[in-house]
Amino acid sequence: MVHAMTVSIDPRVAELLGHDHHLPPVDPQRFSQQALVERFLSPPVWQPDISIERWASPPDPVHAAVLVPIVMRPEPAVLLTQRTATLRKHAGQISFPGGRSEPGDPDPVATALREAHEEVGLPPERVHVLGQMPRYTTGTGFIVTPVVGLIAPQPHETPMLALQPDPSEVAEAFEVPLSFLMDPRHHQRRAFGVPAIEMGRDNPRIEFFSMPWRPGAESDREYFIWGATAAMLRNLYRFLSA
């Protein structure tokens, strides 16, 4: 898994700057398999909102890749994972399946598929790879390539895919409707200051996206999507809406 932050902070208490109510959601017609395939075959001219986190500059960046898995249900959804609470770093955070590249990986696609198989038990042959999004550089020194792929659920895989998450890394795998994630009304802009003792500089202001999601209107469970994961989803919004 790859994450944006290493500092020990609670992003939920960061200052809420606002939402992007002025931006339109992506047309749901663009969520069909044909539309998604065509979008990657003939990409539009567009620019990602954020491609590098400038709040830290660690040496020797590490190449990594994540899989952005779109589950092609009647209402398409994005498969995400929540890290276990016992991990030393980024415990409980939400991410895409993925991680650092290994010497045997020929390209970012191979890295993303291998990591997804290891983390959640998703067989590579089940993923129809559409293409890659622009690389995203985290403040912790990862150069991440998002790989977007489609997954066709089997009839028995409702409401969730039949996965086998690695319990040492993944506490839960879950799906979020693509329509929710591609609607800027749900994109929160937040900011906080990090003490210089943690960052090595004078109290920088860090701005980031978050996309809190609840499985249902009556649910008291909230999945707080933020940091690199939210930023890459925001870039996917720009790509699909262009």
How far apart the termini lie comes to: 29 Å
Order of helices and strands: EHEEEEHEEEEHEHEEH
CATH classification class: Alpha Beta
Indicate the CATH architecture: Alpha-Beta Complex
Overall form = globular
Residue share in β-strands: 25-35%
Number of strands: 12
Largest sheet: 8 strands, mixed
Rg result: 17 Å
CATH topology type = Nucleoside Triphosphate Pyrophosphohydrolase
Query: What's the tally of helices?
Result: 5
What percent of residues adopt helix (DSSP H or I)?
Answer: 10-25%
Can you tell me the residue ranges where pLDDT is under 50 for at least 5 consecutive residues?
Answer: 3-7
Structural class: alpha+beta
- What is the number of domains? 1
CATH superfamily: Nucleoside Triphosphate Pyrophosphohydrolase
Mean pLDDT: 89
GO molecular function: coenzyme A diphosphatase activity; metal ion binding
Pfam families: NUDIX
Protein name: CoA pyrophosphatase
Domain Nudix hydrolase: 61-198
